[in-house]
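Quick question about two entries, pasted in order.
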Amino acid sequence: IAVISTEEKSFSRIAVISTEEKSFSRIAVISPEEKSFSRIAVISTEASNASEVEKSFMNKLYYVYMLTNFTKTTLYVGVTGNLERRIFEHKSEEVDGFTKRYHVTKLIYAEAYESINDALEREKQLKRWRREKKNALINSVNPEWKDLIEDA
């Protein structure tokens, strides 16, 4: 997972997910300091940016993320230190539990944090929110609720 800084006011950090099979150039990741969630960022993953992306890997990041199912009737809020691995686990339905039972596999929202404590606090906060408030947050960056992995 790469993290680079952007010049856009609404985003201070953007995560790009890469795997051996596919590179994803779009994902909604909002810095915890920012209050504006205006759109999903799109960034280039061309080779010319490789050194810039590599440099930004110095800091460990933790991710709070939201998933939904195909019909968008179920939401899941989670936290992880390895977003790429965790989303793969959800999509492959390898691990028994809530997401496998309800087929919650679409990544629709994510935030990056430098502190695991901040990420865990945010996860707890989002889990306490009513569905309408979660929907509004998701809609502010991903109004079509596209799978940020599949549709990248």
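Here is the second entry:
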Amino acid sequence: MEISEKFFDIFTKLGQWRLKQVEKALNPLSISHTDLHILMLLYEKESLTQEEISSQAIVDRSNVGRALKKLEKRNLIAKKKNSRDKRTFNVILTEKGKEFKEEAYKIKKNIVQIFAANLSEKDIETIIKLLSKMKI
């Protein structure tokens, strides 16, 4: 097997493992990985359109639409008309969504700790430096 194939296989396994860890952490809260990603984006920027969420989360619009519907039903987000473009709406956090922020960051921190458990700080810095070259 070529080194580039090994590289690809490791990334595939890493992605699958990461997703499994995230879903295990989120399962008791009845929230999906995409839902959490959307909430994290909204914690950073108070208002985004569905298109902006789709682009930044690297998730197609239909999956984002389903996730937004679910989050809205749970009263974590609300939609309001975009003042510049009446055909679109902005997604904002509700008070309940803002209250979930601490829990969301706690989940993320726990997953990061599991992810980096066998790595030194220097290892992590090296990995970040190398992966930054990939420009993804």
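Reply: The longest strand covers residues 77-81. The longest helix spans residues 3-26. Hope that helps.
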